[in-house]
Write a structure and sequence with these properties.
Largest sheet: 8 strands, parallel
Structural class: alpha/beta
Number of strands: 8
Helix content: 40-55%
Strand content: 5-15%
CATH class of the largest domain: Alpha Beta
Order of helices and strands: HEHEHHEHEHEHEHEHEHHH
Distance between the termini: 30 Å
Strand order of the largest sheet: 1-2-3-4-5-6-7-8
Shape: globular
Radius of gyration: 20 Å
Length: 286
């Protein structure tokens, strides 16, 4: 399956009536593991890319080049439809166009662009500030104009619910819908009533970036929510597993004692497509 097919599959999901949660992935192997358990949609967040590529917090330290390179590694041999959080698209409207070009070429199926002023400027006294609606809309229009594959999707993202309230967020989403984007991305949802109001105001499919634990996917599906993120627990789970494994070995523990906590050789060979490489060795190195 190549990138246009992956994008068309995601478009079909957005056109459907169910809400899905993607697998957080951060490299080629994590994507392969996600596929092996049945996921069809993957998610690479800017925070996850910064954590796993730079071992740094989510402070917009990663560059577009580093982010796109990581996407290419993931998508080199992955069948996932990959959704990525491209933060503020690494700059202004022209940077957003370049961001679209790079991420589309890298194999992304859907990317979001947010209206937060990033990185945090000197002297800013609150956690987040936002571009004007006009600037946010202009950036999204520029991004849409840069697409080459019509099946590639762009989502307009905003977390303004937290600071501007429902009325302010609705004004943004209505404006962003007019830019030609394919979806809106809502961060900071606090109630089902809010998503009902957003659904009534815009016709586009919705991605929900966070929601109270009491709100389930099936609660959101009737209101055109097609993706609901669930956090990035796989990254933290991998860190904990590494810590426990390293600590065991560092303290002199026997490798054999880890057998029940690690993937078997057979599982690893399957995830790494070892049979394919063995065949290639047989075909081309003899």
């Amino acid at each position: 399956m190549r990138h246009t097919e992956q994008r068309q599959r995601l478009r079909a999901i957005f056109a459907g009536n169910q809400c899905f949660s993607p697998a957080t992935v951060y490299d080629a192997l994590s994507a392969r593991v996600a596929e092996s358990v049945g996921f069809q949609i993957g998610m690479l967040a800017g925070s996850v890319a910064s954590n796993t590529t730079l071992a740094a917090p989510d402070l917009i330290l990663i560059t577009l080049t580093e982010f796109a390179d990581q996407v290419r590694r993931i998508m080199r041999d992955s069948n996932l439809s990959l959704v990525v959080d491209a933060d503020h698209a690494y700059g202004n409207a022209l940077n957003a166009m370049r961001c679209v070009q790079e991420l589309e070429h890298a194999g992304v199926s859907c990317m979001s662009i947010e209206d937060t002023v990033l990185p945090r400027p000197f002297g800013q006294k609150v956690a987040e500030t936002y571009t004007s609606i006009e600037e946010g809309a202009a950036k999204l229009r520029a991004a849409v104009s840069a697409k080459q594959d019509p099946s590639f999707m762009i989502a307009g993202r905003s977390s303004s619910l937290k600071s501007e309230g429902l009325e302010g967020a609705l004004a943004r989403f209505k404006a962003y819908e007019k830019t030609g984007v394919d979806a809106i991305f809502v961060v900071g949802l606090e109630s089902l009533e809010q998503i009902k109001a957003i659904h009534a105001a815009v016709k586009l499919p919705i991605i929900v970036g966070s929601a109270p634990a009491s709100i389930k996917r099936e609660d959101l599906a009737p209101y055109n929510v097609r993706i609901m993120l669930q956090g990035h627990q796989p990254v933290a789970a991998a860190v904990k597993a590494l810590q426990e494994c390293y600590a065991h070995l560092f303290k002199g523990g026997a490798p054999a004692d880890l057998k029940s906590k690690i993937a078997s050789n057979e599982d690893m060979e399957k995830l790494l497509n070892a049979d394919r490489y063995k065949q290639w060795q047989q075909d081309y190195l003899k």
